[in-house]
């Protein structure tokens, strides 16, 4: 399945009554399996849970822990960059060179990588020797 199609499709299911900003994310795990997630807001924490976090949670719940590719789509004029927390989550499960495509529903695409989204990421190697 194309990540783009999966992301566009799940975006329509987003629950975003506070921001009215629907986001869809699809990820391919290294096994080849595709997982998707949408943003889910709530009244106490209106920013809710991001689409990327939802897709990662689905992947982990299915027993996979390694990202191979990521696609994020929203209805913004420009491709929306993932929030800081999502960048850290992507870096947790994907290598620096993993391709991340940020897109708009109009078809504008910006290609980047996990490493470019979170340069100098903190990782387990920084705790060595403690
Ligand atoms: N949002 C995402 O789901 N992913 C992003 O990359 C950017 C922002 C959501 C969170 C919230 O529901 C809404 O967009 C506005 O911040």
Write the layout of secondary structure elements.
Elements: H1 3-11, E1 23-29, E2 34-38, H2 51-61, E3 67-74, H3 84-93, E4 99-104, E5 109-113, H4 114-117
Parallel strand pairs: 3-4
Antiparallel strand pairs: 1-2, 1-3, 4-5
Bound molecules: tetrahydrodeoxyuridine.
Keywords:
Cytidine Deaminase, domain 2, binds tetrahydrodeoxyuridine
Kindly report the spatial arrangement of strands forming the biggest sheet. Answer: 2-1-3-4-5
Work out the radius of gyration: 14 Å
Helix/strand-derived category reads alpha+beta
Whole-number count of domains: 1
**Contiguous helical run count:** 4
Relevant CATH superfamily: Cytidine Deaminase, domain 2
Tell me the overall shape.
globular
Any idea of the CATH class? Answer: Alpha Beta
> What is the residue-mean pLDDT, rounded to a whole number?
96
Largest sheet: 5 strands, mixed
CATH architectural label: 3-Layer(aba) Sandwich
Distance between termini? 44 Å
**Which cofactor or ligand species appear?**
tetrahydrodeoxyuridine
Q: How many strands in all?
A: 5
Helix content: 25-40%
- Low-pLDDT parts are none
Description:
This protein is α+β, with helices and mostly antiparallel strands and about 130 residues long. It has a single domain (about 5-125), classed as 3-Layer(aba) Sandwich (Cytidine Deaminase, domain 2), CATH 3.40.140.10. It is about 25% helix and about 25% strand. The chain is built from 4 helices and 5 strands; from the N terminus they run H-E-E-H-E-H-E-E-H. Strands 2-1-3-4-5 form a 5-stranded mixed beta sheet. The protein is globular, with a radius of gyration of 14 Å. The termini are far apart. Tetrahydrodeoxyuridine (THU) binds near residues 21, 47 and 52.
């Amino acid at each position: 399945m194309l990540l783009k199609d999966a992301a566009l499709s799940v975006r329509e299911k987003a629950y975003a009554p506070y921001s009215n900003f629907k986001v869809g994310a699809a990820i391919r795990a290294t096994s080849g399996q595709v997982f998707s997630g949408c943003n889910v807001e709530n009244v106490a924490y209106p920013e809710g849970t991001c689409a990327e976090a939802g897709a990662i949670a689905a992947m982990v719940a299915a027993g996979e822990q390694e990202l191979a590719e990521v696609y994020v789509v929203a209805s913004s004029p420009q491709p929306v960059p993932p929030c800081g927390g999502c960048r850290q989550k992507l870096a947790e499960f994907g290598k620096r060179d993993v391709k991340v495509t940020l897109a708009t529903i109009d078809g504008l695409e910006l290609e980047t990588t996990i490493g470019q989204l979170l340069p100098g990421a903190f990782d387990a190697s920084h705790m060595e020797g403690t």
